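Task: sequence design from structure.
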């Protein structure tokens, strides 16, 4: 899949395409239905399938005080999009100029002009252009358009908002159903208090540079993914009251990891199961005993992944 940041050096050698467009935060099952529909339509028409998305949530410009934390980083979203076999993903800057662009101009100049769209695929709640004038229905009267209906599981609509609520609540079973995969936090490994080392359970602290929604405080079992492979991990989120912690942290103990330290390395934490809520302990011995139980619960509830490079970083073209 080719990835383009903006369209400054965009010179397509095709004269028609199928384009699906949306914010696609988290690539949940509803987004997947939109993307898959576009891929199928492009295959039927024998032309490229282009996914068009934005470099930030539109609310970051439209209403910053109401802009929610993201479900996934741009890199995570792009890796999920690539799984569908799309030809190209175009990342457009959502800035003030984009905000003020009338829907008609966006359609004619951007979609028909630059992207060579002959068919559009959007979700049922899609809108674009100044004052959100370009709804899915509006689009369907001006260009061939497939409007993908809401995706529901047991009568509940899958949406980014519902997913954020589920992550915040630590409702991992619901979140996994909606995403079609475990939720994952992304960041880099940074130094912590190193208390876990003294307890026999050295942890990797996840430092984040991106405002991503974080699961509810508690202890979880899941997978830690690094460039050199993947390991089961017992993960803790919270303020660590047992050791007088003040700042909220995300840390993981990698089961059976015996390699060198990896400070500064990129790491993703996949949350498979919530083991318990965060709580205080009378002393460090009680904390150590509970950590042993958490590690054993993780070993029993999380399948060991293949030891392979688990993810790659995308390299967009400008």
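Answer:
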């Amino acid at each position: 899949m080719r990835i383009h940041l903006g369209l400054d050096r965009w010179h397509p050698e095709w004269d028609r395409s199928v384009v699906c467009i949306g914010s696609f935060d988290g690539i949940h099952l509803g987004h997947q239905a939109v993307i898959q529909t576009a891929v199928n339509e492009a295959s039927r028409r024998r032309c490229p399938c282009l996914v068009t998305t934005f470099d930030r949530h539109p609310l970051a410009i439209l209403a910053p005080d109401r802009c929610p934390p993201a479900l996934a980083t741009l890199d995570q979203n792009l890796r999920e999009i690539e799984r569908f076999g799309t030809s190209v993903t175009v990342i457009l800057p959502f800035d003030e100029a984009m905000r003020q662009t009338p829907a008609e101009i966006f359609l004619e100049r951007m979609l028909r002009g630059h992207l060579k769209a002959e068919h559009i695929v959007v979700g049922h709640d899609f809108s674009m252009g100044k004052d959100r004038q370009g709804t899915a229905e509006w689009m369907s009267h001006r260009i061939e358009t497939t409007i993908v209906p809401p995706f529901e599981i047991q009568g509940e609509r899958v949406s980014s908002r519902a997913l954020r609520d589920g992550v915040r609540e630590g409702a991992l079973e619901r979140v996994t159903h909606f995403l079609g995969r475990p939720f994952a936090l992304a960041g880099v490994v940074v130094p912590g208090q190193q208390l876990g080392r003294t307890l026999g359970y050295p942890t990797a602290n996840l430092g984040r540079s991106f405002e991503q929604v974080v699961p509810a405080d508690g202890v979880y079992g899941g997978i830690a993914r690094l460039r050199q492979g993947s390991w089961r991990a017992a993960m803790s989120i919270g303020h660590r009251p047992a050791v007088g912690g003040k700042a909220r942290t995300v840390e993981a103990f990698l089961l059976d990891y015996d390699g060198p330290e990896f400070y500064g390395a990129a790491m993703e934490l996949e949350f498979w199961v919530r083991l318990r809520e965060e709580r205080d302990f009378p002393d460090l011995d009680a904390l150590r005993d509970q950590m042993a139980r958490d590690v054993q619960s993780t070993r029993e509830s999380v399948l060991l992944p293949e030891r392979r490079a688990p993810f790659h970083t995308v390299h967009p073209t400008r």
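Residues 284-301 form the longest helix (18 residues).
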